[in-house]
Q: What sequence folds into this?
């Protein structure tokens, strides 16, 4: 599941949160949807990317 798409300020990239790897992580792709790459790789759930001058997002630890 891919959610919360947001364009970079220059319009060249889209940032999303996705559970492609099992836990929500932040991904970046070109504006046409190609060349997706995972930006965050940790044990936290990372949601709601926001891009201004820097990338910010909500990150929280999953509790079993």
A:
């Amino acid at each position: 599941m891919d959610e919360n798409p947001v364009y970079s300020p220059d319009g060249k990239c889209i940032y999303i949160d996705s559970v492609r790897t099992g836990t929500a992580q932040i991904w970046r792709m070109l504006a046409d949807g190609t060349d997706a790459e995972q930006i965050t790789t940790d044990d936290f759930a990372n949601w709601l990317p926001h891009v201004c001058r820097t990338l910010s997002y909500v990150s929280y630890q999953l509790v079993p």
Summary: The chain has no helices and six strands. Residues 23 and 40 are 11 Å apart (CA to CA). The radius of gyration is 11 Å.
